[in-house]
Specification:
The longest helix is centred in the N-terminal third of the chain and has 16 residues. The protein is globular. With 423 residues, it is α/β, with parallel strands linked by helices. The model has no long low-confidence stretch (mean pLDDT 93). Strands 1, 2, 3, 4, 5, 6, 7, 8, 9, 10, 11, 12 and 13 form a 13-stranded mixed β-sheet that branches. The two termini are 28 Å apart. It has a single domain, classed as Peroxisomal Thiolase, Chain A, domain 1 (3-Layer(aba) Sandwich), CATH 3.40.47.10. Helix 1 crosses helix 11. The protein has eleven helices and 13 strands.
């Protein structure tokens, strides 16, 4: 039986570099970096989505933002969940054939049995919840608990789009978004679903969110407007970001039959667990490598013979994570007698670390970069930690359409996705 080919036929987001592929591409071409001082910790840089307070106040809202902004219950979704919902609405709109400039009928955009896989971070906007226990509980809203439930964003997105299929909320730390994409890929590949909506969103820019990272000593201390320096010998941590991105996945046959625009094809997926430290990666990267090899093996079986041409590395900019990942990439791709690996990008250098949404935000950025025709350079990389890896040091054309995305998270969560970008 011929395996089902799985493609991305809709993409949308709300990232520090923009909300659409066109906006993100424009920001990349301009070399814009979105880093700014944190409201709560002015000495730290963050990468926010604008506007930072209430997305309903955006000066030029699109149809998706008008829908979410006009919903009187939106405050029951915490910031990260709202970003996921907004991205999901935009991806559903993008999946329509044609220009789609007319006002959408939201519940007609996707079949009502479309499964939803949502990757979302935890509720960390503690300072925005007045009177949380053990405070004055009489000040709490009647449904205050909804902001703390992981599936509230999924419930909202299903409500807006009229979805009644499987709804699954995932949280696998920084591997969450790639895990959700992989689960969606598997469902279509195995014939369990014809179409899947995958959405991701997270925000750790609240006082409590940043405090957690600061206490763990994982944040860069370069300055309030400076980004991280992945794979640089002088790297000192990551810069926290927020963002959301979402994708409609379906079979190639179904997408072509309805005249959909195809952004990319998913070729393989792998996931694993270190089963060790709650925070630090396995020092030898053994189980992260297992996830990456699984994705590459599945992609090879699907016809990826000469790739990957490039790698979108997890590249947080922390001392230990970058060292482990660089060694992993050397083992996988640097052979005796060769001088270079596939091109290695580190997109967190350009838009920060979006935690549970990182993989989706980075995939959206790659789609935008592919449209612009160049791979974004790793910002701040002056002295690479490896002489054997082909880090992208300046804007250059893509070395090919075949690529690998990697994300590794707290708790030893590892995920990798192999893709083919489409013209």
């Amino acid at each position: 039986m011929t395996p089902v080919r799985v493609v991305i036929s809709g993409a949308g987001g709300c990232t520090p570099l923009g909300g659409s592929l066109a906006e993100v591409g424009t920001a990349l071409r301009a070399g814009r970096l979105p880093f700014a001082p944190s409201r709560h910790w002015p000495q730290l840089a963050v990468a926010p989505v604008e506007p930072q307070d209430d997305m309903a106040r955006a000066p030029s809202p699109d149809a998706a933002l008008r829908l979410l902004g006009g919903w009187r219950h939106r405050h029951y979704c915490h910031r990260g969940a709202q970003l996921a919902v907004l991205a999901g609405l935009r991806a559903a709109l993008d999946a329509r054939p044609g220009s789609g400039t007319e006002m959408p009928c939201w519940t007609a955009l996707l079949p009502d049995d479309t499964p939803l896989l949502l990757a979302v971070g935890p509720m960390l906007d503690v300072s925005g919840e007045p009177g949380l226990p053990p405070g004055d509980v009489s000040r709490l809203g009647a449904l205050w608990l909804l902001r703390w439930l992981p599936n509230t964003g999924a419930a909202a997105l299903c409500r807006f789009l009229g979805l009644h299929g499987e709804s699954l909320t995932l949280n696998a730390a920084c591997a969450s978004a790639l895990q959700a994409l992989g689960e969606g890929f598997r469902r279509i590949r195995r014939g369990e679903a014809k179409r899947v909506l995958v959405a991701a969103g997270d925000s750790r820019l609240s006082e409590a969110g940043l405090l957690g990272y600061a206490r763990a000593q994982t944040l860069s201390r370069r300055g309030p407007s400076c980004g991280p320096r992945p794979f640089d010998q002088a790297r000192d941590g990551f810069v926290a970001a927020e963002g959301g991105a979402a994708f409609v996945l379906e079979s190639l046959e179904a997408a072509m039959a309805r005249g959909a625009r195809i952004h990319a094809e998913i070729l393989g997926f792998g996931a694993s667990s270190d089963g060790g430290s709650l925070t630090a990666p396995d020092e030898e990267g053994r189980y992260a490598e297992r996830a990456v090899r699984a994705a590459l093996d599945e992609a090879a079986a699907a016809g990826m013979r000469d790739g990957p041409h490039w790698v979108s590395a997890h590249g947080t900019g922390t001392e230990r994570n970058d060292a482990v990942e660089a060694a992993l990439l050397e083992r996988l791709f640097v052979r005796p007698g060769t001088t270079a690996s596939p091109a290695v990008m580190a997109l967190k250098s350009r838009q920060g670390h979006a935690s549970a949404a990182a993989g989706a935000v980075e995939l959206l950025t790659l789609l935008a970069a592919w449209r612009t025709g160049f791979m974004p350079a790793i910002a701040g990389l002056e002295k690479p930690c490896s002489a054997h890896l082909a880090f992208v040091r300046e804007e250059s054309p893509f070395t090919g359409p075949l690529g690998l995305l990697e994300n590794f998270g707290f708790g030893g969560q590892n995920a990798a996705l192999a893709v083919r970008l489409w013209t």
